[in-house]
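Title: Prediction job returns without error message
Component: structure pipeline
Severity: low
Priority: P3
Assignee: unassigned

Description:
Job completed but the reporter wants confirmation the result is attached to the right record. Sequence as submitted:
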Amino acid sequence: MAARERHLGWDGCVNIRDLGGHATKNGGVTAFGAIVRADSVRRLSPDGWRMLVDYGIERIVDLRFHDELEADPPATIPVEVVHVPVLPDPGSADWPEIDAIADAAPDHVATTRAVYLEFLDRYATGFAAAVSAVAAAPPGGVLVHCMAGKDRTGLVSALLLRVAGVSIEDVAADYALSEANLEPRWRPWLEEAPDEHERRRRRRMSATPAAAMQSVLDELGRRGGEEAYLRAASVTEEELEAIRSRLRA
C-alpha cells in the first residue's frame, strides 16, 4: 500500500495515520483499521469525532501527562479511553537531567537518539503499560495519541510495529512523516522564538529524523530486541502475541 493511503484526514488533527500497510518479516502486511497513531484527538472537530467512531475505533490509549489530561480531559464519546502517561509530568526532577542530555548532543539526530533512549531506559514500565493497553483492547480499532503524536506516540508505535515484524527502516520512515505533518502547526511557534538559541531548541524539538529512530531501534536490537525490552518491563508473551494478531492482515 502507498504511504499516502495510511494518512487519515480527520478534521481537527494533522498527524493521524493508520499503522496498516507495512510489510512484515513473514511476508505479510500489517492490517488496516487495527491501530491508528495520532496527535491529540482533543483537537478533533465534531466531524472529526464522527470520523473516528465511523473508522471503528473502540479504545483510545491516551499517553498525555496527568496535567495535560486535567487541562483538557477526554470528550464524552462512545469509545473507551485508557490513560497511560508514559513519561513523568513536566515538574518531575528528571526533566532537567533529560534537557541536559539533549543540550549536550551535537545535532537533531544525536539529540533525538539520546533523549529517546533515555526515555526507554528510565520509563520502561510506562511504555510497557501502553503496549499492554493496546494488547488488551476489545475487538475493533485502537488509537494511540499524545499531544503532537511524534515522541511518546512515535516510540509506542515503533515498539508495536517491531513486535509485528515490520523492518527498522520502515518504522523509521513512518516516524519521519510526523515532521512534515506538524510543520504548519508548529511554524508560528518556531517563528516566535525570542532568540537564536531558543529557535534552535525548538527546531530540534520539532524534528523527526528517520536516522534517529533507526539508531534507537538498532540499539535496542543490540540489547536483545524490542520484545526482550518489553518482556523485561513485564509485557507477557500473551500480550505480545495479541499485538501480532491484531496487526496481522
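Comment from assignee: result matches the submitted record. The beta strands are 17-18, 35-38, 57-62, 80-83, 141-145.
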